Please model this.
Amino acid sequence: MSKKGKTTLFKETERKAFTLIEILLVIGIIAILALALVIAINPGERLAKARDVVRERHLKSIENALYLYRVKEETFPEGITSEFKEICNTDEVSLEE
Model:
């Protein structure tokens, strides 16, 4: 018999731990929130943009180096195609970064 005099089928015990269902529910909620955060941040797109910026800087450095070489030597280095020479033969080539 219980303290109040009622008969119960199950023992009344103090609850000291979480049940498996409660733990799985909390893990599921945390997983959904983490997924939403990853989708919002989209690290793949950010990395692609960062790589594009680096590529643009490298191309700008090559452009500046070829321009300076042309100014100093009054010709392009060997191996530069005539198509590239036509593009770069303008005097409006800028050295801005």
User: Anything to note?
Assistant: The mean pLDDT is 80. The two ends are 86 Å apart (CA to CA). The longest helix spans residues 43-73.
